[in-house]
What we know:
Elements: H1 2-24, H2 35-54, H3 59-70, H4 76-108, H5 117-127, H6 130-136, E1 141-146, H7 156-170, H8 174-186, H9 197-226, E2 238-242, H10 256-284, H11 291-306, H12 316-333, H13 339-352, E3 358-359, E4 361-364, H14 365-378, H15 391-399, H16 413-432, E5 439-443, H17 448-460, E6 471-476, H18 479-493, H19 496-504, E7 508-514, H20 515-522, H21 524-544, E8 548-554, H22 566-571, E9 581-586, H23 589-595, H24 598-617, H25 627-648, H26 653-660, H27 691-700, H28 711-720, H29 724-733, H30 735-749, H31 766-787, H32 797-829, H33 837-855
Parallel strand pairs: 1-2, 1-9, 2-3, 4-5, 5-6, 6-7, 7-8, 8-9
Amino acid sequence: MEAPVNNSLQQFKNLVGTKFQLYNSLFTSLPFHRVEKTGIFLSLFLLHCEEGYAKGNSPEEIMDSFFSQYTTYTEEKQRTDLLFRFVQYAERQVVLFDALEDAAFRNIRDLQGAGTLRHLQSEVIQEQAQDKLRDKLKDFSVRLVLTAHPTQFYPSEVLGIINDLSKALIDENTSQVNMYLQQLGKTPFFKKEKPTPYDEAISLVWFLENIFYQSAGRILSSIRAQFPGAISSDNSVIRMGFWPGGDRDGNPFVKAPTTVEVAAALRASIMKCYFREVRNLRRRLTFKGVENVVAALESKLSRNLFIPGHKADISRQEILDTLSDIRNTIIADLNGLFVHLVDNLISKVEIFGLFFASLDIRQDSSIHEAVLEAIAARTTALPDNYTSLGDKEKINLLLNIKEAADPKALENPLHQDTLETIAAIKEIQAANGEEGCNRYIISHSTSVLNVMEVYGLFLLSGWKKEEMTVDIVPLFETIDDLRHAGQVMKELYENADYREHLRRRQCKQTIMLGFSDGTKDGGYLMANWSIYKAKEELTTISKEYGINVVFFDGRGGPPARGGGKTHQFYASMGRNIANKEIQQTIQGQTISSNFGTVDAAQFNMEQLIHAGISNELFSSREVTLSKSEEDLLQLLADEGYKSYNTLKTHPHFLAYLDHASPLRYYAEANIGSRPSKRNASAKLNLNDLRAVPYVGAWSQLKQNVPGYYGVGSALEQLEKQGKWEEVQALYVHSLFFRTLLDNCVMAMKKSYFPLTAYLAKHPQYGEVWQMIYNEFELTKKYLLLLTNESELMAGSPIDLLSIQMRERIVLPLLTTQQYALTRIRELDAHPDNGHGRETYEKLIMRCSFGIINAGRNSA
């Protein structure tokens, strides 16, 4: 195994490391103001930062000594102008590094190796598991849901350049690379206006059109070729989901018309993809008896796409039937010539239909409660005393609604919009097919009533019980909610009306589990273990009631939000956890880093498919935890929770984060349409704070608290209790535990405490800084002991090198950001001591973009 790893590492050094140095020199010709000096200054500044931190200097000391040693700048404006040019330069360096990694992907990753479909094929043959595979593929699928969370900072123009730049790098076309780098120099990296939810949707449609359309089609065709007859025509194995325009949890800018517009944009986008492909098919299928059929399909797609006001008159089934006829003719009369092109398009139509990606609706449970109270107060659809009733009485009323409520009767626009959105789902289903929009997700689900409130709202919006073609999906997030999830679902399954609804939905219940708020609430170990245990309990309960439960994981990019090497998590789920489908959110830079090119997307989707299939097919890979292993993990989670809770309840904990990080600037950076807090109140509290700014702020501080805090304390406690050998055995035998710690190590490797070491002496916040640093060092000590490695991530040398190079690129940005934060604190303390607050705030936000883009899964 050593040789391939060393070979891939060498390839990475050659294709990414060396080429980065080579092409970085082309930046000297980029169209910046005084660019040669910027490049030289930035190189000097990076070295100066590294030397300064090694001596224990603060960012402010490093900045002041740099300006005095290397420049003649004494005025603030001269200095900040240079710092803005540093940011501009470093942003482009990050793009170049991204493009080089993308271009080198197929040389560094083994596209036929472990975790791929080719690998699965050889395993199935070796284990004689063809029948098992056929059984599994009847209803197994992977659903990737693109979310609206504001951690993707590249506008679509820049994404297009990165894509083209990667191709030019693969072709080693230096003149083209140079031109694209110049184009980057003149292309804005961020928008001055805050994006609307529709803007967010369109920027993610870029990935659907340019990446997922190709890669998902390839995968389905590949499965059909490798495992003939294994997949039925009604299971496409891959499904895409979509949140922008549908997710209104805490986002006041998402309205019912937005949802309808986004659904229409998704439909238009997939039709455009089909139209292009059918037009290309015509160039190959020039045969009698086929050519006219292809031409007629192209013409119909064209009418549906380009004629304003044309009433949609094409369906998914019609496209499939037409392609099937063409296929039959080619096989019967033309020796199967070009049939693979038709098969590929059939695969895509089966995956994407006329909806491209299923648009999920999401809203917070507290809003549903408020809407129903307003309906009771202002209409006759619910009795006046509704609010004073107990849960059981409310549920009984909601199940027996006899009349619809008029949204116009409600005063609050949000309440009106809630009813209008539920009504709009019908409109979307009529145009895009049922899969276009058929899930309603309830954030902060804590009770049976929360689910029944949504059921009642559908009836109040004019839906009939027997025609409710929508799945209601509770989302359990906090540690307490996860503990009570089993009881909530048990009561739901025992409700006759809800059971009847599930029967009409093929006895399938989707349950969403949120990593982000779990980690924020309970720390890294407790959140991950609570979700694992909730899945076990929910699987058992659902089986008892004859319900197929499907888990939908709300994962962010970094390990602190359930990200990292997610396919390993799915491979490590025990047999007592339902595994019919893998569903997860993908967001922010995770979209561009894991799915930014067709090759990378195909590879990572194959890894997920392999993970979901292999842990059920091959009995030799028993991964279910034993009772003693579960007890040990519970002990670790409890100890980790204690440690994290001590930090979380420290009186200065959140104030420290607000003081030392760019937390408050997330709301002001025009990076996403949603506010950074769910509640608009001025007071900062952990419950209202969204996970993206919370985790992102720790990431930019280079302390990554939610990704490891409590792990070291937990391991230390178990060693003191004489259980260290048991922990070592668990690490060897449990893929779940290993994956948990591997991802934790990744969060630690992206930490850098010299950046904030100056805060150790702070009179108010020094204690918090010291607690975090001590836990980091303790965790590092025990993880190195457990993994028997000399350095964190030594077992993943390519990922390690990538992180090291990226962290080096952004060190000047981190230093600049901390310097700007320090200057603002000084201006706050002495308001008459100079101007420029706005400039420093802008500098902080601009640094954020580069830091987060470089991290690729940092928020």
